[in-house]
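Researcher: Next entry in the queue.
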Amino acid sequence: MYIYFNKHHKLVKLTTLLVTLLTAGSILTACSLDDNSANSSDSTPVTQTSSSKHGNNTAGTQQSVTKAHQPGNTTSSPKINAQRKDILSKLVSYTNSESAGPNGNYYWLNGKARLTGFSHLGTGNYRFTSDVQGRSATARAILTYSEYQSSKGSRQGSPLDPPAWPTPNPKVAITYQLTGRTYHGYLYNRSHSIADSLLGSKSYTSKYNFTTGTRPQNTGANQNGGMRYAEETAENYWKSHPQTSTSIDYETTPLYVGNETVPRGSIVDIKSSDNTINTEVVVINSVEGIKVNYKTGSSNATPDLNHIPAAVAATPKPSHQPTKASSKTSTHSSSITKAVNGQ
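Model: Structure for this entry, 343 residues:
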């Protein structure tokens, strides 16, 4: 390289030789998570996604599940905006007062569905997530009629313990103001976010598809409320549209207060691709007459020492000889049944 400059009319020539050696290196790393990773301080959510399409697995086809590490997210739940903060405020009011909610059946309708996070899900796919504290967070699935059809009959799996599942789980007596009947059985159910009746065996692939739900959160006061109301919304659509190619976007988001381990309730958003269903259901995780500690799962429930054994409770009384006990007392068995979500 030559540089010239003129001083006192004399030309001076300077020659400068520059040599630069640059060395660059890079290290590529990969990471994987197991189910226990969600309980660490890592802020990245664990997700599980079905790789099958349209829910039409042929015989011998293996259902695969992948766990994805998604950098850049600090929580797997959608951000609780002003609307969800309002819902959580109402849930806190209902649960603190041991209330069954505005209709006495542990849910209320809240307008149209507000779905999020479905852009990367295909028909028949699902995703379960955990939050930074290792609690079950949003569960999403694009449901098909074939999944509903294949899940009919017996239960497709065994319910998993959700994170922070409380022990012991006492047997209690719960009297419902809506029906005047009394339930005898376990206080808590392993409550599906997306039910066996909708997703079949896939609903048992992750503990993050389960939350600790009170019995009435799971079934309501009359067996058709709580989470069952939302599930039956989808089930009734399939029943009235057999063999349809229409799909249903289904999303359940548990809502917590601070560091509590038991959700105060859940938001269930449901929308069919033909727009016949377009609704948001808010489910209340409360129980009449029993105060729940949402941090630990403990309660002030008095153990039901007179709990009727399941075999006796399952024996129906003659319908032509009603008694005060039979008309006012529901001795639901605490054993697992297909009709109930995630006992």
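Model: The domain at 36-328 is CATH 3.40.570.10 (Extracellular Endonuclease; Chain A).
Researcher: Noted, moving on.
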